[in-house]
């Protein structure tokens, strides 16, 4: 059995050293991981390889002595790209690299059927409960197949991936996500705001999620964008902010974009203490987790933090904004992305007398 040793670094983060020993057959082999689960998964796969070599009477080979594998291609893709790879994409590729057998296959032996089998296996993954999520995994992996041969001469066949993608789509193993149209009711928002206000009152050091939530609605900003905004990016005289690395189709890494701040966004910002460079100096993952926990506690079903962007955008059209005027707030480069909102009838501001505006400003 492999041994997993937990180590605590100076910054408080954890590392897990997986070590495999087979006396009389090989020198100990080890590798360090950020998570215990991935360390255990790697050790389990590596032990199977080692034990297979021993059972067959072969000398145990180092992985470096074997043919280049898909895992090697993934490693090169993550470490050598001069353009920033998104956090989600990098994490997905590392998961494939460390937890799935396809990563150990030689590049020149991977067939479309192997990719399809991998996608089927994804559906057994805890927490992966939709074909659209499986599509995200497959899409990120396809980038490795596209780049491996021209970049490093690795024999991954791009057409093999394309064939697998067609089959997976045709048979429903992967699919595009359905557009969400979920908007919170004012009653649900009232519950959430009360919940977060009480948490902040009980512990002033707790993230003021009620202010973050209100800002998300009125600014239409994504959670990661909110947490990146700095005081230097804020121009109160022009009622605008510079959103760093805003998502934009066709632009990897995002584009820095100036956006308008409709009322009461500036007032919410002015109510935040200027203690750090960021206006909302919080971790975006923590924002998502706090929101999800609150919805679960309050019994609010099928509501995501990202739905606040949809809510805020819908509000702009209800107030009579045109597509260009709404885009000045949302930051959409293509107005076509906002055409789905043009059916919304002008009916005024549903937040005009919302009592929480005074409390967050």
From TrEMBL:
Domain Tyr recombinase residues, every copy: 179-354
SUPFAM superfamilies documented for this protein: DNA breaking-rejoining enzymes
Pfam families: Phage_integrase (PF00589)
Record key words, sorted: DNA integration, DNA recombination, DNA-binding
InterPro entries: DNA_brk_join_enz (IPR011010), Integrase-like_cat_sf (IPR013762), Integrase_catalytic (IPR002104), Integrase_recombinase_N (IPR010998), Tyrosine_recombinase_XerCD (IPR050090)
CDD domains for this protein: INT_Rci_Hp1_C
PANTHER family named in the record: PHAGE INTEGRASE-RELATED, PROPHAGE INTEGRASE INTD-RELATED
The protein's name: Integrase
Source species: Rhodovulum iodosum
């Amino acid at each position: 059995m492999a041994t997993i040793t937990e180590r605590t670094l100076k910054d408080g983060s954890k590392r897990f050293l997986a070590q495999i020993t087979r006396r009389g057959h090989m020198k100990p082999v080890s590798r360090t991981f950020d998570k215990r689960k991935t360390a255990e998964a790697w050790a389990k796969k590596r032990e199977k390889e080692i034990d297979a070599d021993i059972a067959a009477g072969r000398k145990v080979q180092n992985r470096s002595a074997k043919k280049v594998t898909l895992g090697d291609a993934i490693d090169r893709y993550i470490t050598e790209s001069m353009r920033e790879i998104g956090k989600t994409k990098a994490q997905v590729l590392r998961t494939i690299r460390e937890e799935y057998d396809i990563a150990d296959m030689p590049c020149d032996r991977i067939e479309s059927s192997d990719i399809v089998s991998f996608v089927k296996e994804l559906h057994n993954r805890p927490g992966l409960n939709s074909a659209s999520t499986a599509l995200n995994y497959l899409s990120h992996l396809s980038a490795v197949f596209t780049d491996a041969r021209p970049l490093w001469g690795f024999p991954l066949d791009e057409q093999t991936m394309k064939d697998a993608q067609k089959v997976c789509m045709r048979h429903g193993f992967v699919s595009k996500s359905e557009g969400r149209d979920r908007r919170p009711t004012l009653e649900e928002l009232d519950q959430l705001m009360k919940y977060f206000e009480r948490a902040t009152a009980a512990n002033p050091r707790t993230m003021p999620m009620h202010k973050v939530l209100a800002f998300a609605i009125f600014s239409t900003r994504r959670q990661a964008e909110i947490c990146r905004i700095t005081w230097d990016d804020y121009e109160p005289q022009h009622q605008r902010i510079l959103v760093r690395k805003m998502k934009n189709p066709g632009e990897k890494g995002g584009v820095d974009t100036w956006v308008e701040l409709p009322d009461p966004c500036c007032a919410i910002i002015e109510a935040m203490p200027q203690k750090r460079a960021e206006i909302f100096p919080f971790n975006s993952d923590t924002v998502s987790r706090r929101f999800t926990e609150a919805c679960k506690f309050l019994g609010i079903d099928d509501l995501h933090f990202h739905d606040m962007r949809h809510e805020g955008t819908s509000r702009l059209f209800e107030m009579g904004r045109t597509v260009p005027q709404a885009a000045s707030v949302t930051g959409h480069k293509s107005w076509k992305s906002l055409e789905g909102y043009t059916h919304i009838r002008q009916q005024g501001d549903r937040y005009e007398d919302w009592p929480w505006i005074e409390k967050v400003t």
